[in-house]
Amino acid sequence: MTLGIDIGGTTIGLGLVQDGKITKKVSVPSFPAGATMEQTLDYLASQIAAILPAEATKIGIGVPSVVDVEKGIVYEATNIPSWQEVHIKENLEARFPVTVSVNNDANCFAMGAYAAYPKEQKPEVLVGITLGTGVGIGIIDRGRLFGGANCGAGELGCLPFRSGILEDYCSKKFFESRSLSSLETAQAAEKGDSKALALFDELGANLGELLCAVLFAYDPSHIAFGGGVAYNYPYFRKAMEEYVKKNFPYHNTVDRLKIDVFTGGDVLVTGAALI
């Protein structure tokens, strides 16, 4: 049995995973604002102690950051100011009699999404894309996670784009730049509001540009979307697909591509348990 942990900016999800399925899960508030690194580690350890059974053999943790996977060191974690260099593997292994693995949260999402496909339908090459506060990308090549030399192989969201970077135009930041939220825009789109629908069309075209970059870089057979913005997939799907079909030069690649959506925290927690 493994404990999978998804550390987010607002919540921390913890789930016990047995044979690829979550048997128990809890969600707690993330670290208090202004907490020191020591305080955050004490808080995390207390949450682990509350759920970790004696028979557990491993803890897997996903974090929004670049990670030294071998040493379990987290660097400059997004939305956790005190986590500039955290030796989380060493710290938690000193507290609990289990092995601890740490990886980027987008890689964990990709692992969880890959695990969700039936055995006979496993993707040859899967790119998992999380659309939340930013854009995260994880790559699974024939069942194996590819993270690059520094756990940063999928950071296409940081590519220069227009007046910023790609994730500025493909995540919640896109709506925030208009003084809106993705949730309220979706609520307006559900009521048929033309401005909201047009905004999702614009988002879809931006995501089409991101997908073209993904196709050029990794040539995936499958793409899996997750994260809060992915709940709005029905509103941006058409514009995104139209952009890719019009602008990606290899039509056979586009015709063969399969796109799926995995929302909710279970995929991340399961993926963290599998790293």
Could you describe the 3D structure shown?
40% of the residues lie in helices and 27% in strands. The strands form 4 sheets. The protein has a 5-stranded mixed beta sheet with strand order 3-2-1-4-8, with helices on both faces. The protein has a 5-stranded mixed beta sheet with strand order 11-10-9-14-15. The chain is built from 10 helices and 15 strands. By secondary structure, the protein is of the alpha/beta class. It is globular and about 55 Å long. It starts with a strand and ends with a helix. Helix 3 packs across helix 10, helix 6 packs across helix 7 and helix 7 packs across helix 8. The chain folds into 2 domains: 114 residues, 2-Layer Sandwich (Nucleotidyltransferase, domain 5); 145 residues, Nucleotidyltransferase, domain 5 (2-Layer Sandwich).
Radius of gyration: 19 Å
Largest β sheet strand count, sense and barrel closure:
5 strands, mixed
Cα distance spanning the termini? 13 Å
Q: For this structure, what is the CATH homologous superfamily of the largest domain?
A: ATPase, nucleotide binding domain
**Biggest sheet: strand arrangement:** 3-2-1-4-8
Estimated share of beta-strand residues: 25-35%
Give helix % range.
Answer: 25-40%
Structure summary, number of beta strands: 15
Low-confidence stretches: none
The number of helical runs is 10
Q: By helix and strand content, what is the structural category? A: alpha/beta
Count of the domains: 2
